[in-house]
Amino acid sequence: MASTDKLSEAIGRKIMMLRKRKGLTLSELAKLAGVSKSTLSEIESGNVNPTISTLWAIARALGVSFGELVEPLQEVCTEDVCVQLLKRGFNTELYLMYIRRGVTYLSHPHPEGTRESIIVLRGKLLCGPIDRPTLLQAGSSITFSADKSHIYATFEEDVALLVLIRYRSLFAIPNEVVELDNTNDSAIMERLKSAAIQVQNGLLSYHIVFMGSEEQFKGKIRKYMKDLQIPKIKAIYVERESKLFSIYLFHRDPLGDSSWLKLDLSDSSELLKHYVKLFKKLSHSKIDKKNLAKYIENIDNIILNLILIEYLSLLGEVVELSYLESLYKFLSKEVLSIKQDISLLYTIFEPLTPGFVREIILLAYYIEKLLRNRGKLKVLYIDSRFSQLPLYVLKTLSYEDARKLDLTCIFQSNLSENLLNRLSDAYTIDIVCGDPSQCELCCKFDLVLLRISELSNLWRVLDKCYNVLHDNGLLIVFGDFIPYFTDYLSRIKMMIIHYLTYVIDSIIELLEENLSEIERRFIILVKACCCDAYHELLSGMFERGLSYFFKYYKDVEDTVHRIDLSNIRNMLLISYLSNYLKLRELRLRLACPDKVTTIHGFTRLVERSGFEVVDERRVYSTYNDGGSYVIVFKHV
């Protein structure tokens, strides 16, 4: 057996490593574990030999199992108790335990759902829940819930026992578990491809857990993910506890519903024709990322850049976000904290939302069509938050067509006067902040563009749109709608699947070299939150999927506020901040589910306001009939 000093140093190093990986300070961990900061500091320094109960408390605070914490020691002993780790498996740990005669050892509650099985090898033992312990002789056994306080008490002789601990899964239940020690690379790829074929053939989700050291798996993960390029499959890698890793496979078509591409482009500009042609080429081509750059004739063009970003992100690929960096710097003084105006963060991140660039192109198509008939247009844009979308639409139009638009924007969010002046000067458009239903407008409009997300007083806003439009004027509504539901629980399920689909499609795999520990933890939590909840919901496990979402979202929320937004070293982290905002929107929607509706419910609502449907196209599909839509209504 190694000396006590060496064991103390080993456990101290392990605790410090896990604490930093979790992004916790010494004070934060000490508070969570219920020990003093000075004691924890001494333990990490290897100056003291902690008790078993203290190690259990630290393990609980770190969110790891006791076995993971003590694994470098293999054996932990105090004056009265000695615990030897024999084997760690998937959510199970087997220990050989020795307890001296005449000792009563109180064990505090383990994580929720934990169960212990005890087999007494020698001696007599009183053990089990503290309110109803059982007396066991040598050869006897007992199984009990260990998420409540329980005891081990000995009498006239020393006792030896085997303890099997089964933890409740801290992540979605896998379809398959693979031990890397017993599997070579070719066999792993065969398993992944076999699972991918099942997903291609209609299975909505497949989850594989790999067990092995970081050296065995983490160094090879990018190779596995790179080799796993199969059409209509979204593969996501999630790092778990020590020696546990997941790969999720989801049935996701990179461009989904492409019916919106069937447009009559005979009167459209060459620029718009080029964008639509590019989308058609991508939607019908084999996935060839190496040649994808050839499709982009001018990468400086923001819309082409957005098309490339969206397509590659749907494949989980990293792409340069240089144009977002300049926007981020422009607004940096306004977004130093997520606790400030959340709408400003949406301004930066909204181009990363799947379907966003398709909305732009479709809106530009309808505007061009109107311009051919009317020559000039007075356009009103209404949104619940400040958005650059109308400016992207202008960039999609030809220079001549853009000059024919007289654009006014109403944003329901309150922008600071300083920012409002900066934006008005930068973009030379009329910007009004306030309730759209209360704003006084001195003229009639030919076209109203209305994004419905988070708009309050929707009935009144629709009435306002009707009143400010000329006869036969057009109202174009765009935004996302959840899939059809039948009852309250169905509505909640459809809402979660709908929002998580946006995030799943946006997830890219980042290199970790330029990430801080807290940023790295944030990324792991975002992926775990989405993949675990999504997998369970698609598998029909509603309650479990809901609990996973709430459990991980709380951790995501706690972690994101510790990221220094003014000093992001890796701008690709922006994509995960965008994902966080979508999760945040979902969390808020779950508190008010009645504000979310289906496309059919909304269309009926608008028709009652005096409009009739002219055209309806889905630009991005989530689940069943859910997704992002662009609907054209006519004032009658």
What's the short story on this structure?
With 636 residues, this protein is of the alpha+beta class. Helix content is 43%, strand content 22%.
Write the layout of secondary structure elements.
Layout: H1 4-21, H2 26-33, H3 37-45, H4 52-62, H5 66-70, E1 75-77, E2 81-89, E3 92-99, E4 104-107, E5 115-122, E6 125-129, E7 134-136, E8 141-145, E9 150-154, E10 159-166, E11 176-179, H6 185-200, E12 205-211, H7 214-227, E13 233-239, E14 244-251, H8 270-284, H9 289-292, H10 302-314, H11 322-330, H12 342-349, H13 356-374, E15 377-383, H14 389-396, H15 399-403, E16 405-411, H16 417-427, E17 430-433, E18 445-451, H17 458-468, E19 469-481, H18 488-506, H19 517-538, H20 542-560, H21 573-591, H22 599-608, E20 611-621, E21 627-635
Parallel strand pairs: 11-12, 15-16, 15-18, 16-17, 18-19
Antiparallel strand pairs: 1-2, 2-3, 3-10, 4-9, 5-8, 5-10, 6-7, 6-9, 12-14, 13-14, 19-21, 20-21
Helix pairs in contact: 1-3, 2-3, 2-4, 13-14, 18-19, 18-21, 19-20, 19-21, 20-21
Using brief descriptors, characterize the structure shown.
six-stranded antiparallel β-sheet; Jelly Rolls; about 20% strand; alpha+beta; about 625 residues; 434 Repressor (Amino-terminal Domain); 22 helices; seven-stranded mixed β-sheet
